[in-house]
Amino acid sequence: MPYREPIELADGAVTTRLDAPQVDVPEGLVDALRADLGAGAVVTDEAGILPYGRDWWPLAVVWATQGKVPSLPAAVVRVTAPEQVVTVVRRCAEARIPLTVSAGRSGVCGGALPVAGGIVLDVTGLDAILDIDDTSLLVRAQAGIFGDVFEARLREAGYTLGHWPQSIELSTLGGWIACRSAGQYSTRYGKIEDMVVALEAVTGAGDVLRTGGTPRAAVGPDLTQLVLGSEGTLAVVTEATLRIHPLPSGEARTVFGFATFADGLDACRRILRRGATPAVLRLYDVFESQRHFSKIIGETDDNVLIVLDEGDPDLVDATMAVVRAECADAAPLDEAVAGHWLERRNDVSALPEVVKAGVVVDTVEIVARWGALPAVYEDAVAALMAVDGALVASAHCSHSYLDGACLYFTFAGQPGDDPAVKDAYYRASLAAKMDAALRHGAAISHHHGVGMARGAWVRQALGDTGFATLCGLKSVLDPAGILNPGKLGLPSPFLPEGWAWT
Ligand SMILES: Cc1cc2nc3c(=O)[nH]c(=O)nc-3n(C[C@H](O)[C@H](O)[C@H](O)COP(=O)(O)OP(=O)(O)OC[C@H]3O[C@@H](n4cnc5c(N)ncnc54)[C@H](O)[C@@H]3O)c2cc1C
């Protein structure tokens, strides 16, 4: 599905909200790109560039109700072949023009926003499945393919990728790779970085980088993992080879209620510790259990755990036996809860009305070791509720591993109608969440990435040497610094030192 906007822009003249120097694109470059790619591939008119001025970053959703977009490109270039990516990157590098890769624009951290203007590269025309290798269970596909189209075509051929982000209809393969995405069935199938075995990408210098290709290798550091999570700042991903699975022949579901969130977390830990990997293992705190499931189970004090597995029936049976044993002290709940979750799991249709009612809302996912999680939960909820204007702070455990898990927090506030006060509430809430994560040794993102929104916390998260290493990689792969300015907390030749959206 092509870009779907999170909310309509308020009527009237549109203004840009971010405060950053803007780079224009010289007429000569527009003409040259039109000559290279065809006249229709380069868009400069206002209606054509406007949709590229925003993504699903929640503060920009609020700004849309005020008739503002974060930033606008001077031109949008649409590519349909990898060689065209090389052409565009080389021209931009030579002319020193910022180039921001844009795909589904479902990112929630402002990653695809053209902060410094320049050119937006729309890669959604790279949408082919190139090859399926049944013997080794691999698929090779172009990066701009949308998730729902990709999975549907694989299913027609008898396979599944097993990657089910809530945004599957809104996001692309390249966006998943760029942000280290996680799907709802990740405990069985892994995150995107567990699925990708090879990549083709175009560096900021316009060179084609091919990585990986075998199940494992010991030929230096893993260059595939270097590109994964680079959020369009090091290279433009043009294609990827990923592990696939035969369509599952078995499925089972079960639901439990725990007296405390910490008890539920410990059950998840024990399930993983015994080697069971049920595809879905989602534990909701009491607030979220009420919000999502009270229609089925009535008012509840339970922390609801939904477990769903699929695959070979023997493995599914064994997995569910471990789950039942480890949840023996919890209350068994109506299995219909799992069906209800499955049906409604991707429904975000309430968002526009909530925002129009004056609510500022965001979701922030962090990941930490098991031992730290109960304290991260308590501390982060308390810190979020202490922000002026806060209405709600809640969480669920969405992805579990042998050594820890991802907690997915939702915060919402109604700080008043003044746009500056709304911005201040958002800023303070995000900072409260990031600081709470760092206090407990958690990572500041598990699968949304850093984008623009969380850039200010990257140096602290990686440490000085880690951050300097990332900057060094950037200068090697993108020597002119054209790719995606203002993201991942990286310095940019187009922005003042220390620039941040705040
Ligand atoms: C309702 C909703 C639910 C969501 N649920 C999930 C979820 O369950 N799991 C999850 O992981 N995420 C989720 N997200 C976040 C978002 O969908 C992911 O971050 C997704 O990976 C972004 O993909 P995209 O194609 O929309 O990328 P975009 O938003 O267009 O871009 C995101 C970043 O990736 C870069 N990029 C995109 N394509 C390429 C490429 N080919 N080469 C290099 N860089 C590139 C961009 O420059 C940008 O920095 C959700 C978002 C929404 C709105």
Characterization of the model:
The protein is α+β, with helices and mostly antiparallel strands and 502 residues long. The chain has three domains: 1-247 and 456-502, 2-Layer Sandwich (Uridine Diphospho-n-acetylenolpyruvylglucosamine Reductase, domain 3), CATH 3.30.465; 250-344, Alpha-Beta Plaits, CATH 3.30.70.3450; 351-439, GMP Synthetase, Chain A, domain 3 (2-Layer Sandwich), CATH 3.30.300. It contains 17 helices and 20 strands. It has helices at 27-37, 46-49, 58-64, 82-95, 147-156, 173-179, 186-189, 192-195, 223-227, 261-273, 286-297, 313-326, 336-344, 351-356, 373-385, 419-439, 458-477; strands spanning 15-16, 42-43, 68-69, 75-78, 99-102, 119-122, 129-133, 138-142, 159-160, 196-203, 208-212, 235-243, 245-246, 250-258, 280-284, 303-311, 331-332, 360-369, 390-400, 404-413. The strands form five sheets. Strands 17-14-16-15-19-20-18 form a seven-stranded antiparallel sheet. Strand 10 and strand 11 (208-212) form a beta hairpin. Helix 1 (27-37) packs antiparallel against helix 4 and helix 11 (286-297) crosses helix 13 (336-344). It is globular, with a radius of gyration of 22 Å. The two termini are 32 Å apart. Flavin-adenine dinucleotide (FAD) binds at residues 55-56, 100-108, 111-112, 123, 143, 165-167, 170-172, 174-176, 178-179, 181-182, 231-232, 236-237, 348, 447-449, 484, 487.
